[in-house]
Sequence to fold (412 residues):
Amino acid sequence: MNLKMPDLSTTGSPIKVIRWLIEVGDLVERGQAVLEVETDKAAMEVEALGSGTLLQQLVPVGSDASAGDLLAVIGEAQTASTGSDDRNGAAATNYHRDFLLGLYERMLLIRQFEDRVKALFLEGVMPGTIHQCQGQEGTAVGVCAALRPNDFITSTFRGHGHALAKGLTVQEMLDELFGAVTGCCKGKGGSMHMGNPAKGMIPGIAIVAGGIPVATGMALAFKLRKTKEIVACFFGDGAVAEGAFHEALNMAALWSLPVLFVCENNLYGASTRIDEVMKNTRVSDRAASYGFRGETVDGNDVLAVYDAATRAAEECRAGRGPVLLELQTYRRTGHSRRDPCHYQPKEERAAWSANDPITRFAQALLVGGNADLDDLERIQKKIDDEIERAVEKAKLAPKPALDDLLTDVYAS
Fold:
């Protein structure tokens, strides 16, 4: 349950947090005073609207907040932890069944799409190359589910999952992969530059860390325009070593920009393990050095990702951003289609396979009574049929003409 600032000021002026009356981890009863605030007229208390455990305080003492801003997160004690099916199942009871099934369907769509695309490349019927995200579906779906339709994302060369999570269709993406003019980038972007600005995703940037300063610039534009849009910037743990990462985070911090930095930490930058290039492997700790909040989340728990992204998005919208989310996950495929992935130890792969985000969430849905096996089978058949229809249509989609070589080309 989210505790938001009520409309206490008659003049619309900011409301200052004076004192927290309970600490993180304390039990809260409905109607209990949680914090004390001060308006332009008087000091008063803000009460909890439900019972549970205080999981997070989002506005420090001495800071201002406006009506509707997120102040704290109150939930069941189990939701404070990550990494177990029990947590996933407990959290699932707090959401509508249709929302939960939607998350599952979107994750499964990404997995099935990636597996089908891999087969098409192995068959030699699809041009170019691919960098896939099997195993990381919870990060893309959890973050994008927390965004509004007019929010934007930036992506990388491993962007199929981000695109599907943000609302791009299977058809426009397969058309793009086959190089057709009906593709989301008119056949000119391919796998490594997937995107559709009309749906809130600029084409992916293949340069490692290249999208991070772009996202910061977009967030600056949103702030100057005084809109409530935010941008979520996806990147991998390998990008953290790039100068662009540090420069962009510093700028975003200085100007309190509405950008959500999302590090999908899958432990490997290409074939190099993170502990071989970083003394401090907790990526979220980098945020503190620039003066803003960082958080490490179990990236294979889609609801934990959704909860964390929702809190972070509200902070950004309220002018308290940026936020750095480190989502711990694992890719079950090679860096690219030519990578056999021998550098990943068998024991490590087995452990992460047992923590697969889709299998884990499916079990939580079944245990929580939000789905039965017929529901899951129906969703899988629906996805399989959609993908196969799109594949056959994409194979016949029109290719660009020679004159198209000079369209959509810009020179400075």
The radius of gyration is 22 Å.
